[in-house]
Amino acid sequence: MSTHSHTFTILLADDDADDCLLFKDALGELRLPVQLSTVRNGEQLMAVLNDQMETLPDLLFLDLNMPRKNGFDCLLEIKQNERLGRLPVIILSTSMEEKMVNLLYANGAEYYICKPNEFSQLVRVIQLALTIVQQINHPRPSRKEFLLLPESYINEST
Predict the structure, then answer these.
(1) Contact 125/118 with Cβ under 8 angstroms?
(2) 137: left (phi over 0), alpha (psi -120 to 50) or beta
């Protein structure tokens, strides 16, 4: 995954069409070999993950507030499944409720991104997440490093 010849496959689960477009535009700014697929609800997400016979995406960005099945329920289902359990899941949400963040960490999410208000911050946090997850055998972050906030990456030169 660390070579530039590898096309990084990303699955985005988000029911907000504007957020999906912003995410796609942010990926475009990075100019990396990335293939993005999107699903609009939790049921569709689980169907896609369970139907892919051979290869899972390299990374899943998961919104919490989706219809039919929310992101939290999807995370539980993914992490309890032997085949899907290794899929890195990054939560993407507007909520910063401490209890929920702790629960998501305890249930196996890789990182938690609070959706930034500025496009440049979204680009940076996606780049940071991709950089971290592409590292071979990267360890799961501590609870302290679980939250990727604008102030945690705004001054980084990546």
Answers:
(1) no
(2) left
Q: Which fold has domain 8-153?
A: Rossmann fold (3.40.50)
Distance from chain centroid for Cα 37: 12
Q: How many helices, marked H, and strands, marked E, lie in the chain?
A: 7, 6
CA separation, residue 9 to residues 51, 80, 138 (Å): 16, 22, 18
Question: 143 to each of 4, 74, 77, 105, 110, how far by Cα in Å?
Answer: 30, 21, 21, 7, 10
Model's pTM, two decimal places?
A: 0.86
- Condensed to tens digits (0 to 9), the pLDDT of residues 92-133 reads 988 778 888 899 999 999 989 888 888 998 998 888 888 877
Beta bridge partners of 8: 34
Distance in angstroms (rounded) separating the CA atoms of residues 9 and 26 = 15
Q: What is the pLDDT of residues 80-94, one digit of tens each?
A: 999 999 899 999 988
Distance of CA 53 to the CA centre of its chain: 21
Domain boundaries, the chain: 8-153
Residue 155 neighbours by CB distance under 10 Å: 7
- What gap in Å lies between CA 75 and CA 84, rounded to an integer? 10
CA-nearest of 132, 131, 150, 149 to 140 is 132
H or E, element range at 90: strand 89-93
